[in-house]
Amino acid sequence: MTMASNTLQFKTNYAVSSKIEPFYKGGKVQINKDEKYILCTCGTRVNILEIATGQLTRSIEQDDQEDITSFALSPDDEFLVTASRALVLKQWDWRDGVCTRSWRAIHNTPVASMTFDPSSTLLATGGCDGTIKLWDVLKQYCTHNLKGSAGVVHLVQFHPDSSVLQLFSSSLDCGIRVWDLRSSLCVCVLESHYSAVTSLAFTPDGSTMVSSGRDKICTVWDLKSREVVRTVPVYEAVEAVVLLPEEGDFSQLGVRTKGLHFITAGSKGVLRLWEAGSARCVFSQTPPVSTPPPSGEEAGPEEEWSQRSLTYCIHLPSSARLAIVTAEHNILLYQLPALALQQQFVGYNDEVLDVKFLGKGDSHIVVATNSPQLKVFELASRSCQILYGHTDTVLALDIFRKGSMFASCSKDNTVRVWRMDTLSGEVRCVAQGSGHANAVGSISCSRLKESFVVSGSLDCTVKVWDVPEQQEGAGEAELQTLSVRTTEKAHDKDVNGVAVSPNDKLLASGSQDRTVKVWSLADLALLGVCRGHRRGVWSVQFSPMDQVLASASADGSVKLWGLQDFSCLKTFEGHDASVLKVVFVSRGSQLLTSGSDGLVKLWTIKTNECVKTLDAHQDKVWGLHASRKDDLAVTGSADSSIMLWQDVSEIELAEEQAQQEDQILKQQELSNLLQEKKFLKALGLAISLDQPHTALRVIKEIRRGRDGEQQLESTLLRLRRDQKESVLRYCAVWNTNARSCLDAQAVVQVLLRHHPPEELLQYQGARNILEALVPYTDRHMQRIGRLLQASMFLDYMWQKMRVTGHSSVETQGESMDTSPVAPATPPPLFIIDTSPSLEGERGRQEDEEGGEKEEEEEDATEENQEDDADVSVAGGKAGKNGKTERGREETEMAEESASGESSGEEDEGADDGAGDGRKRENGIGWSSEALPLQMELIR
């Protein structure tokens, strides 16, 4: 276990590898000329199914999402015309799925029937308004408007000889009208039937016609005399009639004489061959199984056959086959002359209730739908076997260990065991058991031997059935009986799920009473009860490796229970609705769950984490199963679809590693290109990697070099159109950031300069990109405008500082070089506050300390001049040292105050001149000696 866990690779993802979806939900079915494709309607689509592979090759869908009421494929396979409820006719190139022409149908009500003439020139449409229109599809106009039918024209058919120009139609009045297309008149009405005429069949020469109806008779007509040749009672409502070819040996079908023979398909669900001359049935198919009517009903009514009745029968002359369509939307191909079943296609599955892998190598799947029949699909060819046996809806399935046997349970209160022939792939029922008093909703098979099955029922009981040993040479008729080994009333409510442990020792049952119970299989003794779910339990499953049990509940949770003490070990919550199925994968280390929300979730048990959510279904996912190799999973849903999932964890891991290696190589190549300054290749590589940041790095590198703008222009213009589209898309992202907006604007400028607007607007998404560029560009322009305004203020301040410094310097004379002499007393630029405040005194003190006195005061006393000189010396020392002592500063301030008052009283102009040269910053004045140095620093 330890070694296995070390090498175990957890799953990370599943991908849908194939689908089985509805392709036919009733209506017309037609097969093309070379008999390779089946065309059938499914709501708003005409689906084209390839017969050889069973794959849906193309769906032709109406643009208006209206249901298709009828369609017709021309005999030469050239034209396909569809009619919808919107009263629109469309002509298609059906191989390519392209509509080549559409026109309004002149009918007042939807078209109910449609057919081409043998020459593929004329198209006849029968409407629900009782009129018939004929269209020339080559010249594209309406040629005839035939009126006179009573009610819906549900059948139109041309005479097989195109030169005769006759059209046959039938409506609700049960007559067959014959129209002469030359005169556009109804030449006669063939009356023989007393209910709706369902089909017409002509002999190759066009002299004889056979009609069928739901009045349980077929009529043979002589078209020359327009008289009834023979009326054949067939004792069933006939939906289709086909003439047997005159050439060929059909002795296996009971044909002993020459003459007209025809095959009927109707409500009894079997093909029967009739001899027209003697009006007797010479061959009748054996029903797949003689199904008794449900209890309480008599064995005679047609409802007994309604599910198996046939609706269409088409002869394929090239391959000598018959195509049969059943009321359950199945298409069956029979090979003539033995009338052996060759292929079966299921057009509509209804709700899928359970699905399991089957056969050697999981080559098949068996599906339980909302039907008494089981369907076994071969995954390679999509061919299907339909298994008859149960008389009511099959609810659950389970597979034995070897994969060739499986068991089913049904609403008919029975359990059946089926075996697949490993060579032919044919499946038949080998054993049946009855004993439950209500519907059997769950079943589980033995894990070691094909010896027993366990069933859980709505009657609250669990039964263990012994499976008798199968004899190799046993015939199909030898249906054995399952005997009940043990019965136990297990729960207080419906038993929804049962599971057998891998060693066949334990049995688990989950019920609507919200409990999970564990039993001993030997005697059905109760071992423990697991309580914790808040609603009913839908599914239980034993781990294949550990002694744990998983349960899925309608409360939206999955719980793991320990089999030692039956306690809850883990709870997984993530589904928004009921969890319907749970299975173990990855050797018991992960879980797959499906729920009513249409989701399938993958869980890792160790981390309690939902690794992946798979969303492909539109309705409840009732069926979930994993293959024995653990590489596939299959799901079946109430939306009538079956999905086959493939484990792509290793594939994605390998792709991710390869992608990382490729990215590393390309990043290295990009660095080399940038180093070599091969900017064009570098930019192209960044665009191919779809890395906007790397492309921006290249753009910045180009603009950083010499002649960057010219280099950027030449590089951008050499890009391809798709590369320019990518760069323009990147610019919308770069422009949102102030750091890269200039690069984006440079690129946009080049593109706008060299490409006209009409060309740029043709770029993919150009309008949206340009709309995204505009608001951020406006924001950048506003920011630059604000920055420009702020720089203008600095320029203004600088100019003022220059003017102020100039006038101050001029007045000093001998202190420094001066410009031409300015007026002696210029007008003051700043108003100096001369109030005796502390700041004013300190500023005046510092000003007088820093500069020399002008010799303008001739009458100043010598004592004041000496004091000024002493103060200047003291101020110079203080400025040189960068700091002054507090006591000296106070002394100097007192001296400066005295000298300043005397000088200010004598000449205020000198103070003004000196004050103009002062610039205070943070309360410290600039002296006239320090000003030139500061000016030089600012410059």
UniProtKB/TrEMBL annotation:
Full protein name: U3 small nucleolar RNA-associated protein 13 C-terminal domain-containing protein
Limits of the U3 small nucleolar RNA-associated protein 13 C-terminal domain: 667-801
Organism: Anguilla anguilla
Each WD repeat, start to end: 104-137, 146-183, 190-231, 387-422, 433-467, 488-521, 530-571, 572-613, 614-646
Gene Ontology MF, one: U3 snoRNA binding
UniProt keyword annotations, A-Z: Nucleus, Repeat, WD repeat
Entries under Pfam families matching the protein: Utp13, WD40
Positions of the UniProt region annotated as Disordered: 808-939
Compartment list: Nucleus, Nucleolus
One GO term describing the cellular component: small-subunit processome
Biased segments, Polar residues type: 808-818
Main location: nucleus
Compositionally biased tracts (Acidic residues): 846-870, 903-914
An annotated GO BP: endonucleolytic cleavage in 5'-ETS of tricistronic rRNA transcript (SSU-rRNA, 5.8S rRNA, LSU-rRNA)
Basic and acidic residues compositional bias, start-end: 882-891
PANTHER family: TRANSDUCIN BETA-LIKE 3 (PTHR19854), TRANSDUCIN BETA-LIKE PROTEIN 3 (PTHR19854:SF15)
